[in-house]
Specification:
The protein is an alpha+beta fold. It has 2 domains: 153 residues, UDP-n-acetylglucosamine1-carboxyvinyl-transferase, Chain, CATH 3.65.10; 207 residues, UDP-n-acetylglucosamine1-carboxyvinyl-transferase, Chain. Helices cover 33% and strands 25% of the residues. The strands form 6 sheets. Strands 21-22-1-23 form a 4-stranded mixed sheet, sandwiched between helices. Strands 2-14-16-15 form a 4-stranded mixed sheet. Strand 19 and strand 20 form a beta hairpin. Helix 10 packs parallel to helix 12. Bound molecules: ligand EPZ. The site of ligand EPZ has 25 residues, from helix 1, helix 5, helix 6 and helix 12.
């Protein structure tokens, strides 16, 4: 099992290049199989979730050609099987995007029902409600969702809650239904807009993505496309908060600053300087940061995927902060690990009350999930002494070359797989 070993205390300084968004790449890879022509996807992040999904589409018969680390060609003309194996949904819930894609193209799909995951129970009732509204028969049998339609026709879908996954899945299926579908109370995340733009680049007719009403006019078929994935706002945000936690000065490059506004506003509020450029933001933290309150919300609110990162920064800020998690019920699991590093945090229901401490001390901790894991690495970078983070496989699901990028910013961090390597690191850093 691999771990990160970190010697904390260095302010992060320098430039970091952000990759394509994992949460846009996953639905876009799924949607790419909806045409029989070849799709070229650029700026794909080289992270485990993306690689597993590419394997999943190969397994149902699509051709996948790796052009380079961040570019792939996909051809869905050879798909022979509309059922996805449990192995994939177990590794990556987002393979449920193949439901919308296969249903749209072939009018049938079978995908194992994803269970809960580390951050919450994560129902998908809204996805299924949307598929049913556009004419699919959906049943759950032997642990799988089986969706079929003789004829899919546009409809009006009102989502009970704002859901990224449901908005995208319904948008994909409806883009090949007959007539017009309207999704109300749609998610507005940049990755929802990116999927709509990608579908439109293949010939779909989708309007309103990025607002809460999306209008889709179904078309019969899609055609080839070459598309570059939007920059990852969560990867970018993670480096912005890493700069804040370590009192650093980091230029985060290849981003869309507009997508980062909720994070930028909070960083400014607690005392960082944030400078925006056309496609970069620079975060400078030159003094002790101060308390604030934050509540996670759908975009353009403060993202749940950035909750642990701000939690870590506030645990080092002066004063008492309140963090409210309103999207997923289990996103405070990092707090117990942080307490082992000296943080003072109390969780009550969906709220964390954080009394800032002057500093953390390094400890052996474990990564509870992707974003919490990344936030704990940030805590290790800010801590005095050595931190070892276990279960980094979660982090590798969504951050490309995390340790390499952090090292270019001056961090002392190594990926290790044995006690011998840990000792070697300790000897080297003194
Ligand atoms: C996406 O998950 C992301 N995953 C998550 O990223 C992210 O945390 C989340 O959106 C919120 O921004 C991917 O894009 C692959 P939702 P998703 O449907 O689509 C409830 C990360 O770290 N809900 O927007 O599953 C749900 O329980 C992650 O990269 C229903 O009740 O999230 C939650 O409370 C993890 N029924 C809320 O809605 C449904 O049918 C929002 O969930 C669907 C959702």
């Amino acid at each position: 099992m691999e771990q990160y070993i970190i010697k904390g205390g260095n302010p992060l300084v320098g430039e970091v290049e952000i990759g394509g968004a994992k949460n846009a790449a996953l639905p876009i890879i799924s949607a790419a199989i909806m045409t029989d022509e070849t799709v070229t996807l650029e700026n794909l992040p080289d992270v485990n979730d993306v690689n597993v999904l590419l394997e999943a589409i190969e397994r149902i018969g699509a051709q996948v050609e790796r052009v380079d680390r961040h570019t792939v060609k996909i051809n869905g003309s050879t798909i022979g099987d509309c059922s996805v194996e449990y192995e994939f949904i177990k590794k990556i819930r987002a393979s449920y995007y193949l439901l919308g894609a296969l249903l749209g193209k072939y009018k049938r799909a079978e995908v194992p029902l994803p269970g809960g995951c580390n951050i919450g129970s994560r129902p998908i009732d809204q996805h299924l409600k949307g598929f049913r509204a556009i004419g699919a028969k959906v049943e759950i049998s032997h642990g799988s969702i089986i969706a079929r339609a003789d004829h899919m026709r546009g409809s009006h879908v009102f989502l009970d809650m704002v859901s990224v996954g449901a908005t995208i899945n319904i948008m994909m299926a409806a883009s090949m239904a007959d007539g017009r579908t309207i999704i109300e109370n749609a998610a507005k995340e940049p990755h929802v807009v990116d999927v709509a733009n990608f579908l439109n680049s293949m010939g779909a007719d989708i309007k309103g993505a990025g607002t809460d009403v999306i209008r889709i006019r179904g078309v019969e078929r899609f055609h080839r496309s070459t598309y570059s994935i939007v920059p990852d706002m969560i990867e970018a945000g993670t480096y912005m908060f890493a700069a804040a936690a370590t009192k650093g000065d980091v230029m985060v490059k290849n981003v869309i600053p507009k997508h980062l506004e909720a994070m930028t506003a909070k960083l400014e509020e607690i005392g960082c300087e944030v400078e925006e450029f056309d496609d970069a933001v620079r975060v400078v933290a030159s003094k002790r940061l101060t308390r604030t309150h934050v509540k996670t919300q759908p975009y353009p609110g403060y993202p749940t995927d950035m909750q642990p990162q701000i939690g870590v920064v506030l645990a080092l800020a002066s004063g008492t902060s309140i963090v409210t998690e309103s999207i997923f019920e289990n996103r405070f699991k990092y707090v117990d690990e942080l307490a082992r590093m000296g943080a003072s945090v109390k969780v009550e229901g969906n709220t964390a009350i954080i009394d800032g401490v002057a500093g953390f001390t390094g400890a052996r901790i474990s990564s509870p999930d992707l974003r919490a894991g990344a936030a704990l690495v940030v805590a290790g970078l800010a801590a005095e002494g050595i931190t070892i983070v276990d279960d980094i496989v979660y982090i590798q699901r969504g951050y490309e070359d995390f340790e390499g990028k952090l090292r270019t910013l001056g961090a002392e961090i190594e990926r290790v797989a044995s006690e011998k390597e840990i000792q070697k690191f300790k000897l080297r850093v003194g």
